[in-house]
Amino acid sequence: MSRILIQDGSDTVLLGNVILAESQSARMRGLLGRDSLPTDIGMLIRPCRSIHMWFMRFPIDVAFLDHEMQVLKVSRNVRPWHLAFAPGKTHCVLETAAGVLDPVKPGVRLEIAGNL
Hints:
Elements: E1 3-7, E2 12-15, E3 17-21, H1 24-29, E4 41-45, E5 51-52, E6 60-65, E7 71-78, E8 83-84, E9 92-97, E10 109-113
Parallel strand pairs: 3-4
Antiparallel strand pairs: 1-2, 1-10, 4-9, 5-8, 6-7, 6-9
């Protein structure tokens, strides 16, 4: 099991489990086909520069991360049929249920604890 921690001195556990999408098909599929996403599970898509919400059934929070997992931008409550654009240095994207990324601010670093 892998967890994602917020590295702000508190080591707060943000997510209890992470789904990794690295293959081209897994990155393209993302969260499509799901009716919801539990609040303790997120999807890390790498590499990834931006996302779309075409055909999605529920809103999500999105963190755009650089190579060191530093948060560049957070898009909150991105609704189906909308887009979220990434800043220039984005390397990967973390998708979670809406509201999960409320404590996350740009500049903070996330850490994956455990094996992906």
